[in-house]
Each structure stands twice: as C-alpha cells, then as structure tokens.
Design goal:
The structure holds two protein chains of two kinds. Helix content of chain A is 87%, strand content 0%. Chain A is built from four helices and no strands. The longest helix of chain A is centred in the C-terminal third of the chain and has 31 residues. The termini of chain A are far apart. Helices cover 59% and strands 9% of the residues of chain B. Chain B is built from 22 helices and eight strands. The longest helix of chain B has 36 residues. The chains are: A mainly alpha, B alpha+beta. Chains A and B meet through helix 1, helix 2 and helix 4 of A and helix 9, helix 14 and helix 15 of B.
Chain lengths: 98, 565
C-alpha cells in the first residue's frame, strides 16, 4: 500500500475515533439520536473504540513514515480529524434545522 | 482584586491577547506562508521556475564558482561599524570558509564565502570579525546566475520569512524582541485559555454559527484554539527555543569562558582543527568525499543525498571538509561527516545524538521544516492558519462583548480595537496580495525593484489601516464596521488579480502548470484562488449578517444572558 493511501486511512481512523468521542458527549448524541437514551455500556464502547481508532491512526502513521515524522503527522491528523468531526456536526445541525 | 483564580486568568488572557495579539497575528500568518517560502520564491522570481536537482559535481561545477565570489559591500559596511580601525580593501581579504548547498525545494545553488578581517572586533566576546560574500549558480546550465537575478528579492524567504520572526524592525533587533514577548504571551494565553474555558470537553466539537454573533465567535475561538492546541503549544515553544540563545544570551555573555573551554575540548575530541595552521595546504577531490559520505550513510541505514558542503580553513594545512545530508525524510538529522581536505580521510563523524540533542533536534526540525513530507507541510500550514483564526476571533469577541457598553458610555475603545483588528486581519492579507501583484507588474529594470515591492506592501497596509479607521463608525454605535465586508471583498479581488498578473507576465496559467505538474506555481495559484473563494463566501455572509442585524438588533439584555467567559 502506498504511503499516501496509508496516511489517508490514518486520517479516516482519526476522524472515526474523534467521532466516537463526540458521540459520548450528550449534546452531540441528542443531535443525532434525539431523545433515545445512551446506554452506559455503549458509552464505554465508544470511548474504548475511539481510543483504539486513534491508536490505530498512530500505527498507520508509523507504517508510512520514520517515527519522528510519524509523531508529528499523527498529532496534526488528530487535529484534522477533530476539525472534520466538528464541521460535520455543524453541517448536520444546519440541515436538521431546515 | 479578582475574586477567583479563573477570573484572574480571564483578565490575563484578555489583556495579553489584546496587546500582543496583533503581533501574534503577523507571526502566525507569515509563519504559515513560510511553510511554502521556496514556492513563493519560485512564483515571485519566475526566472527560477525550474525543477529542483541534486547538488552537481563539486570539483568541476562548484569549485570554480568560488572564484567569482567577492566580499559583499553591504556586509563590509555593516562590519566596519563593529570593528576597530579601517577595513582593508575587499580584494585583499582571504577566504576562511566556503559553504555551498541546496535544499530539495531549491532551484538555485547558493554559495557563501566567509572572509577573515584582521581588525579587532569591538565586542570583547568575539574572537574574530568576518565579512561574507554570496553567489548563485544555475544547476541546469552550470553557470553563475547574473548578479541582478541573484540579488532579486525572493519574497517568500527574503521578505515574508524575516517578517515572521523579526517584523522587519531591525533597529536594536527590536522586532525579534517583540516577537519573543508575543511568543511568551501566546504560551500564557494558551494556558490561561484552557483554564478559563468552562466547557472544554463538553464543547470540544461544538461550533454554532447560527447563534448570536457573540456565541458563534466564541465557539470558533474555542474550537480552533482547543483543537489546534498541541500544534499551537509546540510551535510557539519551539519558536521561542530557536531564539533562546538570543533572548537569554548566556552562552555568548555569562558563560563565555566555559563556552571557550568547551570549544577546545570538542576540538580535541573531534580532531577537527579549531584554528588554521598558517601553512598552505591543498584540496583533494571533494566529489570523492561526497561519494564516501553517501556510502557511509547507506551503511548506517540512512541513505540519502548531499545537502550542503563546507570547507573550513580554506587553503590551509588544517583545512577540512564537512558534508551534511539533505534532510528530506526526517525531522532532525545527525549524519554530518568531516573529511581531511587534503587526503579525503574521514576525520570525524557526528556521534549518535544524546537524549537532549534528540529533543532539541526534533523541536528545531519541526519548526524549520526542511523535510519533504508534503502532507505534513500542508497540515502545518493549516495549523498556522487555525492559529490566525483563533487570534482573529479573539479580537472579534473582545469587540463584540464591549461595543454596546462602550457605545452607551460614549467611549471609543471597542471602535479602535475593531479598526486595528481589521488592519491586522484583512489589512495584512491585502498588503501581502498587493506585494505579490506589485512583484508581477513592476518592471524588472526599475531601479530598486525590491524597495518598490516592500513599499507596495507597507503602503497598502497603511491604506488598509486608514480605511479601517474611517469605516469603523458603526462600531461606535454598537454596529458592525463596514471595513470588514469591504476589505474581505478586496481580498477576493486582489487574490484573483494576483493569479491573472502571474498569467499575463509569465504565461504560466493553471492549465499549463497543472498539466506540467509544476506544483510550486500551480500550488500558489490554487491557494490564491481558494483564498478568493473563502473571501467571497465571507463577504457574502457579512452582507447577510448586516441585513439580519439591521432587521433584528439583539437587545443588550439578550447578550447579558450569555455566560461571562
């Protein structure tokens, strides 16, 4: 697999991981699932899954680049993933209002 | 007294940000452009639009180059103020050190020569005084670049980059001191910002553009600050670290005797002569040393190309050749090799980095960004721009929170801050774009071409400031300054004009540069067009907001209900 593809997967993993963390927050859970309650077990799963996905993103970064570069790329991809999740949630809120 | 710790931190955050935020805006914006400084150089000096190449043969191509180098008159003039007695004539000065190198993004090879001055320096801490000379070579033709092209202002690395760390305030190095103070303020603002953020985790992913302006501005300020926090902390800290020796000159002042002793020990350990012997020596084949260096790197598991070569104690028996690896694939490098100039024998090899060197190399490397990783370069560019958004929304929030109260009380604080914010945000972008356009349309044979470009930059910035103050009237009545929408529109127009100016003056339009995959110029044009699109969207949103707010001015009591943050 090319380094570019590996890094795109890392971005995807980071975004998915951040998405899991976003769903553990009551405001965003309500935004997507309205009044449906969030079971405690699901919340735990989202947290563990989110952390796992972020760790997976690091492994992908480390597969693509030497470790010193991978640390930087991963840190910036965490930010990029979180920004994407924020943007998606903002757009979802806008379309839900219409 | 501020009753709580959090309120004290809020006070610190607000006023530090207000006073030094304008500087930080400049530092972050031009820091972001400096990620692509060499690409801006290609765009602004079209004669250098070529593909980057590895360093050519030293013995055949580079060595004759040094015959062309003469001490630079400006360097002579500068040094004359710092030494005792009159300087000897330039042509009698003897070269002490040669340096030649090119990075993986450079299309010209730069060669520098350091000349020893016999004069005694006025600074008692300095051992020797030196002057420098410079020459550029075109690796495509193997010929020396004509002086008028070599000295042409490279806007990216020659103007935007020094702006980033020194604000072009060279008197007493004032700019570097101000930037350092602003960097320290940035660290304090980041830490205090985290402390005063009431819902850091709850609103980690929250941006609500539909809420009242006060709320949505604060959301954007928080979300850019929090999500880019690791980047902002590390980039600010490493920036301060790079200038630590300047701000805290312990190695050149307080601990000078210790440093001198350390230099002697290092010279003994490495075996690299600290001083010339005073007897003439010869220079063997540097090409052979470069081949040996590449073989050595391959052996150590870090194969790579030569980035730069230096000859110390030129023409002396003690001369040695240092060869650096082009640092394309990692953050820090530690693979420099030193050869005896005459025999080509390997004298010394940098030992594996110690832990402190690993950390400092990493922090320096991530700030200077010599690596080739394009994805990471774009991410760091975006990180810098997130910093800009965070600072700009900080100003907007300051103004938005106070303007009604100030309007009622009849004070002009919010109005002045708003006009300065316009100047520091859209005004700075306008000045940058005007300079790029000026670079393209000012005739090359104009005397002082570089001075004119700089003049365009400063004057257009000044004009944007005057405009911002003239149009800030509505802020004084609790409204929105007309300058935001007007200058945002100007940014869009100027960005498109810059792309067109590049097309008209060089014939390099996007279809051509994209089909040739000439990314330095295509990337510049694409970024300019993206900026134009964003500016158009922003101008439209500002216009809509103006109509909305005219229809429904939120009462002061609505705003009072917002959390005091």
């Amino acid at each position: 697999m090319s380094d570019t593809a590996t890094l795109l997967l890392a971005l995807l993993a980071s975004t998915a991981g951040m998405g899991c963390f976003a769903l553990t927050l009551p405001a965003h859970w309500r935004q997507l699932f309205a009044e449906r309650p969030q079971p405690a077990s699901l919340r735990l799963l989202l947290r563990v899954g989110g952390a796992g996905l972020l760790a997976l993103a690091f492994l992908l970064c480390a597969a693509a680049d030497p470790i010193s570069m991978a640390i930087l790329v991963w840190t910036m991809l965490l930010t990029a993933g979180a920004v994407l999740v924020t943007a998606l949630l903002t757009l979802q809120a806008r379309s839900a209002r219409r | 007294m501020r009753e709580t710790f959090r309120q004290a931190m809020l006070y610190l955050h607000t006023w530090l940000g207000l006073v030094l935020g304008f500087v930080l805006m400049v530092v972050f914006f031009f820091g972001s452009t400096s990620v692509f400084d060499r690409e801006i150089d290609r765009w602004t000096v079209p004669e250098t639009r070529a593909q980057a190449q590895p360093l050519p043969s030293f013995d055949r191509v580079l060595l004759p180059l040094f015959d062309h180098v003469r001490p630079d008159p400006e360097s002579m003039e500068h040094e004359a103020d710092h030494v005792e007695g009159p300087l000897p004539p330039a042509e009698t000065l003897k070269a002490a050190e040669w340096w030649v190198g090119m990075g993986h993004r450079d299309t010209l090879i730069d060669a520098w020569v350091t000349y020893d001055l016999p004069n005694k320096p006025k600074d008692p801490a300095a051992d020797h005084a030196h002057v420098h000379g410079h020459v550029s070579l075109n690796p495509q033709t193997g010929e020396k670049v004509p002086d008028n092209l070599a000295e042409r202002l490279r806007v990216g690395s020659g103007f935007f980059y020094p702006m980033h760390f020194g604000l072009h305030l060279e008197w007493l190095d004032l700019g570097i001191w101000i930037v350092g103070l602003a960097g320290l303020a940035m660290l304090a603002a980041l830490v205090s910002g985290v402390i005063i953020h009431r819902r850091l985790f709850v609103e980690f992913f929250t941006f609500r553009p539909e809420k009242v302006k006060l709320r949505s501005t604060l959301d954007l300020h928080n979300v850019t600050g929090v999500l880019a926090l690791p980047f902002l902390l590390v980039i600010t800290f490493s920036g301060l670290l790079i200038f630590a020796g300047f701000y805290l000159p312990s190695t050149s002042k307080l601990m000078l005797p210790l440093v001198k002793a350390q230099e002697k020990v290092e010279a003994t350990v490495s075996g690299l002569p600290k001083d010339p012997a005073g007897r003439p020596g010869s220079l063997g084949s540097v090409d052979a040393m470069m081949v040996a260096a590449k073989a050595r790197w391959a052996e150590r598991g870090v194969p790579g190309e030569v980035g730069s070569v230096a000859v110390t104690h030129v023409g002396d028996e003690n001369a040695y050749v240092s060869i650096w690896r082009d640092n394309v694939d990692r953050v820090a490098t530690n693979e420099t090799l030193h050869f005896d100039a005459d025999t080509g024998k390997l004298l010394y090899e940098d030992p594996p980095a110690r832990p402190v060197q690993v950390v400092s190399g990493f922090l320096y490397g991530l700030h200077f960004q010599h690596f080739q990783h394009w994805g990471l370069r774009w991410l760091l560019f975006a990180g810098g721009l997130m910093g800009c958004v965070c600072i700009a929304t900080g100003f907007l929030f300051f103004v938005e929170r106070r303007k009604r109260k100030h309007a009622e009380a009849g004070v002009t604080g919010a109005r002045i801050v708003d006009a300065l914010a316009v100047t520091a945000v859209t005004g700075m972008v306008i000045a940058t774009l005007c300079m790029l356009i000026g670079n393209r349309v000012l005739p090359i044979n104009l005397p002082d071409h570089d001075v004119w470009q700089k003049g365009v930059f400063w004057l257009s910035w000044l004009a944007a400031m005057v405009h911002a103050f003239l149009r800030s009237g509505p802020v004084g009545r609790g409204g929105v300054s007309m300058a935001w929408a007007e200058q945002t529109g100007a940014v869009a127009a100027l960005a498109i004009a810059a792309v067109l100016a590049n097309w008209v003056t060089t014939g390099d339009h996007l279809v051509k540069t994209l089909s040739q995959r000439y990314w330095p110029v295509a990337g510049m044009d694409l970024v300019l067009l993206t900026a134009a699109c964003i500016a158009l969207l922003a101008a439209r949103a500002l216009g809509r907001r103006k109509r909305d707010s005219a229809a429904r001015e939120p009462a002061l009591s609505d705003l009072e209900q917002e959390p005091a943050q």
